[in-house]
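Retro notes, item 3 of 5
We never archived the inputs for the adenosine-5'-triphosphate complex last cycle. Fixing that now. Sequence and ligand:
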Amino acid sequence: MPTQTGDGDPRPVILRAENVSVSYQSASGSRVDAVREVSLDIREGEFVSIIGPSGCGKSTLLRAFGGLTRTSGGSVLLQGDPVTRPKPDKIGFVFQDYTLFPWRSVLANTVMGLQFRGVDRREREATARRYLELVGLDWCADSFPAELSGGMQQRVAIARALTTDPAVLLMDEPFGALDEQTRTLLGGELAGIVEKTGKTVLLVTHSLAEAVFLSDRILVMSARPGCIKEIVQVPAERPRTEEFLTSALFDEIRAKVFASLIEEVHRQAQANEESRRAAQRG
Ligand SMILES: Nc1ncnc2c1ncn2[C@@H]1O[C@H](COP(=O)(O)OP(=O)(O)OP(=O)(O)O)[C@@H](O)[C@H]1O
Ligand SMILES: [Mg+2]
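Structure as it came back at the time:
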């Protein structure tokens, strides 16, 4: 059964982190504490962004949410069930690097999740075409990834992640390699797709504008070991429009997130410098 937290939001909790910590053993044998005691509830249909200094543990936390990285403490629950390994039926991923297979056509890339599930060819192709249409790429189903721009390839990756109808979509800087205009355009498209499909999304991004435009809530992570420093609500109505992008509310929220983030960026830089000196002393 979905968990309720009694904070007034009627939507059920779909994904929960309870005191999640992740530590790595580095190649030199020392321990890196990447994430420390993160507790968080994400509700069905929510769009939550994670922002924080480079190296603070954002990807690690996202991977722990998806069962791709083992937690060293605490637990992740999806609809009340522990997530200890990937659940491709329920959790979809879109990563920063274009992860399409170059020798497969756009359609053949998009059907992959359904193919692994054993869905028959006619049905999987029909579903894949539907999602390609949703991301505006049905017309290049027979093209190959190399014939597509970076933005188009990421749209295919999003379509592919949606075909299996996952309960949650985890995205790690999906637009990180794109130019600012394409990012803005794709962000707008993603907002539309999420509104149409009602998906729950957890997005890691370095872009303040992207986070504010897309999210219901923004989690600001601290310098490593990353914990949640602050949660900023984005009380703007949906569908989000370009007017929101140029509104006073948008600027106000962005400034608030920036102020919180920049402190951590400085703290992380200082910590990196200390680690460097310690390594030199060695
Ligand atoms: N497999 C690994 N083995 C050892 N250390 C790791 C591993 N993966 C990540 N780390 C370390 O854990 C810390 C957090 O890394 P993570 O990739 O989660 O950061 P991030 O916030 O996503 O950074 P960025 O914004 O640069 O993507 C870093 O210090 C990194 O070096
Ligand atoms: Mg990362």
